[in-house]
Amino acid sequence: MNMRAIKFSRLAFISLFSAAILSFVFTQQIKIALAVQRTKTLAFIALKRGTDDFNLYTVQVNGASRRQLSHKLSVDPTIVWSKNGQKLAFLSNDSNIYVVNADGSKLTPILTNFSCKAPRSSIAWAANDRKLVFTIACDGETADLPGSVSLFTSDTTGTQGTKLIKKWIARALPAKTDILSSLYISPNGEQVVFFKDKNIYKMNIDGSGLTKLGNAPSEFPSQLTWFANGKQFAFSTGNYRHEQIYLMNVEKKTLKNLTDEPEKEPYDGIFSLPPNGTQLAYYHTQGGNRPGTLLDIDLLDINRGTVRKLTQKPGQ
To answer: pLDDT for 150-179, tens place per residue?
Structure first.
């Protein structure tokens, strides 16, 4: 199992409503996903003793006013606050999507009874919190059959207000007819980017404005993360353990390799962007006979191209 599988197979995420920061927690007894919004309220999932379903709760950061927002929905650790802090969108059973007011009222199903193999979903708010954008990627039913990647929008009034914008066949032959990457939603929820035929494209969430941004270094990225301002995104791609991190300027349509020198090479392509978007943190291998056992965290200055080592105690 590679490091990415180890890191993500058993971890639930924490997201800060006020900034694009990710962290991870795990215990033997409870899996928690936290989202902090401007009124200092946490949203999290928890499992009651004697039950099998994780449900959605909110609580103030001082521990007061704990409230249960869902019942028997088996909520996944994907919780997204609206920008005004009045609503939450969340995922249930891998592919069912709901919206609920922060006070627990108006629990609304946005997409239910969607069935496919190994679904992987992403959610974002758009149009000043009036619209929800989400994607679902599915594997083929067998190794010989293609999967799919679908883009949906919803006015959040219920399943009748949900619209399928486009469905791509994924990982099929011939290669020129499919999409090999996921769809990556911009921070404002108004655009998606994706890789197809070793090119990078962007598209508006209503299906219009398809634009080629440039050639891609490979068929799909290992990780793609938008900058908070929505003007750039970084992605990693290449051969496993020797992947590079690239920077795409959406407005200028320029692509830059940030880690094309041996001393800058990231391990396994995993990286993190801080909210200010001027730096990039990632693992850097110190060598050794066992890959991944001698790692430090490096910090890259995106503008200057300089690297600073943050840790001096290599380990797995």
So the answer is: 999 999 988 889 999 999 988 766 665 678
Count: domains in the chain: 1
DSSP 8-state code for residue 179: B
pTM here is 0.81
In this predicted structure, what is the pLDDT of residue 277? 87
pLDDT tens, 180-219? Answer: 889 999 999 999 999 998 899 999 999 999 999 999 998 8
Contact yes or no for 36/42 (Cβ under 8 A): yes
Q: Residue 84 is part of which domain span? A: 1-106
CATH of the domain at 43: 2.120.10.30
**Token reading at 145:** 């059959």
In a domain, 304, yes or no: no
What is the C-alpha separation between 253 and 215, in angstroms, rounded? Answer: 10
